[in-house]
Design brief:
The chain has helices at residues 15-21, 38-54, 71-85, 103-122, 133-144, 178-187, 204-212, 245-250, 253-268, 276-286, 361-367, 405-412; strands at 30-33, 58-64, 88-93, 126-128, 155-157, 168-170, 233-235, 241-243, 292-296, 299-303, 307-311, 324-325, 331-334, 338-342, 348-351, 379-382, 399-403. It is an alpha+beta fold. The chain has a 6-stranded mixed sheet with strand order 3-2-1-4-6-5, with helices on both faces. Strands 7-8-11-10-9 form a 5-stranded antiparallel sheet.
C-alpha cells in the first residue's frame, strides 16, 4: 500500500498531515525516532511511503537507553525492520551513569538530545515521532493527577537546546488510536517490540494508560494549535525581543502567555521554560499601564511604551554567560544565544561586560546602535595575539557568528508551520 495513493484508507494513511508539514521538493533526509514499538513502526511505515512518492530519503534513529536487559536485542530488531523497509538506520546509545531519581525524565531528555544531534548531523530538520491520540489523553490524565507532562503537539520545535536548534518534531498520528495502528500493522504482517516498562504501574504514564484502556473515543485531537497573533513581538540580531504592549493587551491571554514565555526562554538562552505562575504574574503587569523592570528565565524585561526583553547580565555573577573555548572548525553555541564557528584554535568567547572600552573605535561606534540593556551580554572574542573584538559588531578574521534568538522565538511561537530547508 502506498500512503496517499491507494484509495483504501487505514490508520497509517496520514498523507494529509504529511503534505501540510513536509516539503516534497526538499532533498534532505527525514528522520524518524524509531524505538521498534508499534507506534513508531507505524510512523516509519507512513513516512517511508510518503517519501517514496517524492523521491526523498528517510533515516530511522534508534536510542538504546541501556535500561533493559533486552535493549541490544531490541536494537537489532529495529535495525531489521528498517532494513525490511529500505530505510537507513542509526543506533544511538545513552551512556554514562544514570540518575537514581527522575529516571524517566532524564531518559526522555537524553533521548531527545541524542536524536536531535543525530538529525542535525544527518542534515534533517524534521524528526517524526509516533505519538497517538492515546498519548494526548494519557498526558491530560497525568496532569489531572498531579504530574506535569506537556500535551504532544503535531508540529513543534525540539524541546532540547542547543542540540535541537533548527530541528522540528512532527507527530502525524495524533488523531489515530494506538489500537488502530496495531490493527493496521497486523494486517500488513508486521510485529513490533513491546516494552514491559509501558505496563509497569509504578510509573505515572503506565497507570494512565491502564486507566484509559478501552474508555477513549474513536479518535483524539490532532494536537494542532493556532499560531499566536502576528506582529506582537520582534527579535533583532542583538539577541533582544521587543513586545508591543498594546497588541498584547488585545490578544487572548493564552497566546500572550505563550509569547512571553517563548521570548524569555529565547533571550535567556536556557532550556527549561519559565514557570507558568511567574509568566502569568508578569503578563498581568505587562497588560497594565505601569512602567517597570523584572527578570524571567535569565532575561531582563524593561517595560515602558513597549517591553524590551534582553539577556540579564546580572547572571554573570551567578555563573551564567560563562567564558568558553571555541573549538576550531566546529560550531559552538555560547550562552544558548549565539552560534560561533572559529577557523583557528586558541580562541574563547566571553560576555562583553567590562571589555567595551577595549573595543576599537569603529566597534564602539556600532555598539551604540544596540539597546543599552543588550550590550553587556553580547559575545566578545578573547585572543591572546589580537585585540578584543565583538563578532556581532564587525567581522573578526576566522570567526563567524550569528544570533539564534530570533529563529528560536519564531519556532516557539508557531510562526514556522512547515519543514524548513537544512
Amino acid at each position: 500500500m502506498t500512503v496517499g495513493v491507494c484509495k483504501q484508507r487505514d490508520a497509517l494513511d496520514v498523507a494529509a498531515v504529511l503534505d501540510r508539514r513536509l516539503d516534497p521538493d526538499l532533498t534532505q533526509l527525514i528522520a524518524v525516532a524509531f524505538s521498534g514499538g508499534g507506534d513508531s513502526l507505524g510512523a516509519l511505515i507512513a513516512i517511508k511511503a510518503w517519501a517514496d512518492g517524492c523521491g526523498r530519503r528517510v533515516i530511522a534513529l534508534h536510542v538504546d537507553h541501556g535500561l533493559q536487559a533486552a535493549s541490544s536485542a531490541w536494537r537489532d530488531l529495529a535495525a531489521d525492520a528498517a532494513d525490511r523497509l529500505g530505510v537507513a538506520f542509526r543506533a544511538l546509545a545513552w551512556t554514562g551513569e544514570k540518575p537514581t531519581a527522575g529516571l524517566a525524565a532524564a531518559a526522555r531528555g537524553a533521548r531527545h538530545g541524542l536524536i536531535a544531534e543525530a538529525a542535525r548531523g544527518a542534515g534533517a530538520t524534521t524528526v517524526v515521532f509516533g505519538h497517538t491520540a492515546d498519548d494526548i489523553a494519557e498526558a491530560a490524565l497525568m496532569r489531572a493527577e498531579g504530574s506535569s507532562p506537556g500535551s504532544p503537539r503535531q508540529w513543534a520545535p525540539s524541546p532540547v537546546w542547543p542540540e535541537g536548534r533548527g530541528v522540528f518534531l512532527l507527530r502525524p498520528l495524533l488523531a489515530v488510536r494506538r489500537a488502530a495502528i496495531r490493527d493496521a500493522l497486523r494486517a500488513r504482517g508486521w510485529g513490533w517490540i513491546d516494552d514491559p516498562a509501558n505496563a509497569d504501574l509504578r510509573q505515572p504514564r503506565a497507570r494512565a494508560r491502564h486507566q484509559l484502556s478501552g474508555v477513549m473515543g474513536a479518535a483524539g485531537s490532532d494536537g494542532r494549535e493556532p499560531a499566536p497573533t502576528p506582529n506582537t513581538a520582534k527579535a533583532d540580531d542583538w539577541g533582544t525581543i521587543r513586545i508591543d504592549r498594546d497588541v498584547l493587551r488585545r490578544m487572548p491571554q493564552a497566546a500572550g502567555r505563550r509569547i512571553l514565555a517563548a521570548a524569555a526562554l529565547s533571550v535567556g538562552g536556557g532550556e527549561r521554560p519559565p514557570r507558568t505562575e511567574r509568566v502569568e504574574a508578569l503578563l498581568a503587569r505587562l497588560v497594565g499601564a505601569d512602567d517597570f523592570t523584572a527578570t524571567l528565565a535569565g532575561a531582563r524585561l524593561v517595560a515602558g511604551r513597549d517591553a524590551l526583553i534582553a539577556r540579564d547580565s546580572g547572571e554573570i555573577a551567578r555563573g551564567g554567560l560563562a567564558r568558553i573555548a571555541l573549538e576550531s572548525g566546529r560550531a559552538t553555541v555560547w550562552d544558548g544565544r549565539f552560534e560561533l564557528r572559529a577557523d583557528n584554535s586558541g580562541l574563547a568567547v566571553a560576555p562583553l561586560k567590562g571589555f567595551q572600552s577595549r573595543l576599537d573605535a569603529e566597534s564602539r561606534r556600532r555598539l551604540r546602535a544596540a539597546p543599552a540593556e543588550a550590550r553587556p551580554a553580547l559575545p566578545v572574542i578573547i585572543d591572546q595575539t589580537r585585540p578584543l573584538a565583538c563578532p556581532i559588531l564587525a567581522g573578526y578574521g576566522g570567526v563567524e557568528a550569528h544570533c539564534l534568538v530570533g529563529a528560536r522565538f519564531s519556532a516557539a511561537c508557531g510562526a514556522i508551520l512547515r519543514e524548513p530547508p537544512a
